[in-house]
Amino acid sequence: MSHSQDMLRTNTAFLQFVEQLFEDKQAGNTIQLKSFAAGAHLIRQGSIISQVYIIREGITKCYIAEDNGKDYIFEFLGPGEITGELEAINKGACLSNITAITPVTVFAIPHDRFMALLRSYPEFNELLLKVLAARIYQTCIRTSYQQLYPVEYALLRLLALEASQQTFFSKKDMAAYLGISVRSFNRTLKDLREKNILDKKGLNIDLSKEQLEQMIKRFEEA
Amino acid sequence: MSHSQDMLRTNTAFLQFVEQLFEDKQAGNTIQLKSFAAGAHLIRQGSIISQVYIIREGITKCYIAEDNGKDYIFEFLGPGEITGELEAINKGACLSNITAITPVTVFAIPHDRFMALLRSYPEFNELLLKVLAARIYQTCIRTSYQQLYPVEYALLRLLALEASQQTFFSKKDMAAYLGISVRSFNRTLKDLREKNILDKKGLNIDLSKEQLEQMIKRFEEA
DNA sequence: AATTAAACGGGACATTTGTCTCACTCCCAG
DNA sequence: CTGGGAGTGAGACAAATGTCCCGTTTAATT
């Protein structure tokens, strides 16, 4: 379930469940719809929030801004993904920023209501467990290969994911996702182009799936 | 709750709960005790397991071994920490290796039993939610500063944690925890010694808490 | 159409990190 | 006591990455 390596995470099952709750006059009366323009903050790191958001439409990025001015993007969240749940569970200040990349609409559920839902709908509880488990899973895998493989490799994976998902992010965001500077990002792109692995022009991987897998295998052996 | 930045994670509440279950003849009859010698594998990456383990005693390390021969340690798990829960929730192969650093004893609970416990004990369910949330929280924070700050800074934090917890790991493990080579680890240690931040001899931070905080602040401003 | 801000691409140089290597110590099994 | 293996420490060099900078392109607004 949702174990596939995604740069942009989505969760249809979760979205459907919340959608249904929202439709239900009884259960849904504390659930609000909210909209955010592209670039707007849904959640600000360090602030206190009293609701969880489930993304109904649009794409957001979830990142920590360090004091030295650098950002690290953990994930791009799309429809069906929840944010602010850590804060609901542990009652702390917000871990990260969430900002809208495209225009976004969300379901907003107050914390106490959210916790009550978990208790009254075991199915919902289990969906959340799966979401959290999947996040840990993904984060571990990603962190590990970003630390232990050259950037070139991580970048290739990133581009492959981007291509397969038909989504496109700014270079700045992609660099922040990889935890490197934009300069390094560009440099690596150039290297890959010179090796004829990428289009001269853009970001399209100039390889078949088989070839890409071979590339990656080669990296792993080296 | 357990938000403090720990290198060695422990969880008293969780341990107590499982301990009680184990004592209870009715509920505990499917819970086994298992022991592992130092260095033994509790869980092998990629394998299939059918139980979750809750550490009763001892220290383990949780790491991914990449194909290029490098390891990345996510966390050191101590008493009360659970492992194998991701696999119970998502039914996949094991994400990571767990090996015993010291002799270890664990409670072993079969997957189906574990999932049943979550349903029948809301309190247990909530404890698990908190554990998962705390892991995400910690992982995000750590990943971010390891990517965005110089190694020197991450290393200082690591040593401070080690000192405050009175735990000591091999250099190899500490390097794997930081995602760097042992060589870099040593080099950075040497630099810190030359700057009179560390003991000439060993790994003790040669600063008061206030001084250390100042150091870290200086890093953050730079 | 003109203006501005942001994104992009890359040169030059400094710094950081990895790889390879060798030497030293310690401990333990033979 | 002794040889081997693991852990440790560091020199020398190569490779990767960051910083600073500037010119170009693109997109949005006036």
Would you kindly provide a written description of the structure presented here, covering whatever features stand out?
The structure is a homodimer of 222-residue chains. Chain A is an alpha+beta fold and 222 residues long. The first copy, chain A, has 8 helices and 9 strands. Chain A has helices at residues 12-23, 85-90, 111-120, 122-148, 151-165, 171-178, 182-194, 209-221; strands spanning 8-9, 32-36, 41-43, 51-57, 60-65, 71-77, 82-83, 97-100, 104-110. Chain A has a 5-stranded mixed β-sheet. Chain A has a 4-stranded antiparallel β-sheet with strand order 2-9-4-7. In chain A, a hairpin with a 5-residue loop joins β5 (60-65) and β6. In chain A, α3 (111-120) packs across α4 (122-148). The longest helix of chain A has 27 residues, at 122-148. The model of chain A is unreliable at 218-222 (pLDDT under 50). The interface between A and B is large, with 46 and 46 residues. The structure holds a DNA duplex (30 and 30 nucleotides).
Note the main attributes of this structure:
homodimer; 222 residues; alpha+beta; 5-stranded mixed beta sheet; 4-stranded antiparallel beta sheet; 8 helices; 47% helix; elongated; disordered C terminus; DNA-binding
Query: What's the gyration radius of chain A in Å?
Result: 19 Å
Q: Give the SSE string of chain A.
A: EHEEEEEEHEEHHHHHH
Major β-sheet strand ordering of chain A: 1-6-5-8-3
N-end to C-end Cα span of chain A: 32 Å
Percentage of residues in helical conformation of chain A: 40-55%
